[in-house]
Every structure is written in structure tokens, then in C-alpha cells.
Design goal:
Helicase, Ruva Protein, domain 3, Rossmann fold, 2 domains, 11 helices
């Protein structure tokens, strides 16, 4: 995607306000086909203010240091670089998570997967201590959030990428979560144990979709965490084939899916677990986004 040449006037820190910086940057982002919400995130980072404080202080001038930092980071943002990579973090389920080029940026739809898993865990297991695994943990957002929200859980996080596990371990320490980390492909590190809950947000975008995707995603986020063969369905098939022998009864499998993959993934898991109750659940935007497979 080609971006327009940005034009920016010389800063006068004594007269430029947070509001002026915000509106100017929002306009530039919109003109370049980029996410205008990044302007707020960048200014929260620069001013070290919460969203509420930033809104309350819109008429305050930027300091010289803030104006200089804004100029530098604004230029990076207008190249299409994700604002989360620029500021080094993203919020998920009310907690800050370190992100980098080695992991996917956590997204709001995945918060819904965690929420759905927690609700079903309470119904199935009450307050029992359970064994949980997050396959393809990336930043660790799913595993860490589940463990902190349900502290009696024993949570293991796996990823094929050692670089991703470095980020996940850092996030566990940052948020005070107690996890076990294992490196390996999909369920391979888990095969010698039995599990009560499996969580996963695997790569599910078909390779053929890349040309139509935002360059902010394709150019900056790890392809091995985005794309999968067979129209994005390949890893679901592998999970359906490998998970049956390691699931307890009762148990629960919770997966994030692409919005057109609900019926296909449901069929895979129905074949793998003929007696299971399988739900396709929509996200906040009314799109199929989650599969919950309850095994009795």
C-alpha cells in the first residue's frame, strides 16, 4: 500500500495543545488509510496519561520533550508500523502486555474467547483445580489472563517459536502469573499428560488472503502466527487429530477461528469427538469467531 507524503508544520510547544496534536494526527492517519485510533494510543504513551486524563487535559500544551517525541513517533506511525510496536505494548483484559515483531498483537475478539472459556470452566469444574494448556501462546495473553482470572488453574503455554516464548515469559513476570512454558509444534509438547481445558488461537488466515490484507498486519506481524495452509484450516485439522487421546472427561476445547470457518472447524471436531457438544459462537461484531467443544 502506498502512503501519501505527510505534511507537518513546525512545532511551537508553547502553543500546540494535546487536542491539536491529536486531531492533526488523526487526519493524517485517515488520509493514509491507517487506523485513526492509533493517535490516542500514541499520545497516551507520550504524555503518560490515561485515556480519561488525556481527555480532561486536551487543552494543555505539549512540553518540548513531548513535542519532540511526538514528531519522531508520528513519523514511524505514518509508515504503517503498528502503534503497539512503537509503544511496545497492548492492553488485553485490563492488563498491559509487551509486544514485538515476534508475536501477534492481542486483539479484542480474543478477549471474548477467554471470557467464554472462563464462563464454561466455572460451569463444568466449579472451583476445582484444573489443568489448562494454551497452544500457540504468542505473547501469552490468553494463558496469562486465564491463570490470573482463575488462580487455582495450572496453566501451561506452548509455542513453536522460542522468540515468542521469550515475550510470553516476560509478560508472565510482568503480570505476576505462574505458568509453565514448553516449546514445540501444536499439541506435541502436551502428549504425555491429560488436560481439562485446551485454549488456542492458531494461525487461521489462508495464504491467498495476504494480498488483500492491511500492510500494517502483513509487513509487521509474524507470518507463522497469521497464515496456515488449506485456506487457513490446516492447523485445526491437526488439532482435531491429535487432541482426543489427551483430553480428560469432562473437558473443554476453546478455539478462535476465522469468520468463515465455523462450519468447517465444527465438522472436524465433531468427527474427532462424536459425543461432544460443539458451539460456534459469534464475536461482538456478529461474526463467527469461536468454537467451544465440551467433551463428556
Amino acid at each position: 500500500m502506498k502512503t501519501k507524503r505527510a505534511v507537518w508544520k513546525v512545532w511551537n510547544p508553547m502553543t500546540e495543545t494535546i487536542h491539536a496534536a491529536l486531531k492533526n494526527l488523526e487526519s493524517q492517519l485517515g488520509d493514509n488509510g491507517l487506523d485513526v485510533n492509533a493517535a490516542f494510543l500514541l499520545l497516551e504513551h507520550i504524555t503518560e496519561k490515561s485515556r480519561a486524563s488525556l481527555l480532561a487535559d486536551l487543552r494543555e500544551p505539549l512540553t518540548v520533550r513531548q513535542a519532540e517525541q511526538f514528531e519522531q513517533l508520528r513519523a514511524e506511525l505514518l509508515t504503517g508500523k503498528p502503534v503497539q510496536h512503537i509503544i511496545g505494548e497492548e492492553w488485553f483484559y485490563g492488563r498491559a502486555f509487551t509486544v514485538s515483531k515476534d508475536v501477534l498483537i492481542p486483539r479484542p475478539e480474543t478477549e471474548e474467547l477467554v471470557q467464554g472459556a472462563l464462563q464454561r470452566a466455572t460451569r463444568l469444574f466449579n472451583d476445582k483445580s484444573i489443568r489448562v494448556a494454551d497452544i500457540g501462546t504468542g505473547s501469552g495473553a490468553i494463558a496469562i489472563t486465564f491463570q490470573l482470572e482463575r488462580e487455582e488453574s495450572q496453566v501451561t503455554a506452548t509455542d513453536i517459536s522460542e522468540a515468542a516464548l521469550v515475550v510470553a515469559r516476560r509478560n508472565a513476570e510482568r503480570n505476576g502469573a505462574k505458568l509453565t512454558f514448553l516449546q514445540g509444534d501444536l499439541a506435541q509438547p502436551l502428549m504425555n499428560e491429560k488436560w481439562d481445558i485446551i485454549l488456542s488461537n492458531p494461525p487461521y488466515i489462508g495464504m491467498e488472503e495476504a494480498p488483500s490484507m492491511s500492510s500494517t498486519v502483513v509487513d509487521y506481524e509474524p507470518h507463522n502466527a497469521l497464515f496456515a495452509e488449506e485456506g487457513g484450516l490446516a492447523l485445526y485439522q491437526k488439532l482435531a487429530e491429535t487432541l482426543p487421546p489427551i483430553m480428560n472427561k469432562p473437558s473443554l476445547i476453546c478455539l478462535e477461528i476465522g469468520y468463515l470457518q465455523g462450519s468447517g472447524v465444527k465438522q472436524m471436531f465433531k468427527q474427532a469427538f462424536p459425543n461432544a457438544t460443539i458451539e460456534v459462537v459469534q464475536d461482538m461484531n456478529g461474526k463467527d469467531r469461536m468454537i467451544f467443544c465440551e467433551i463428556q
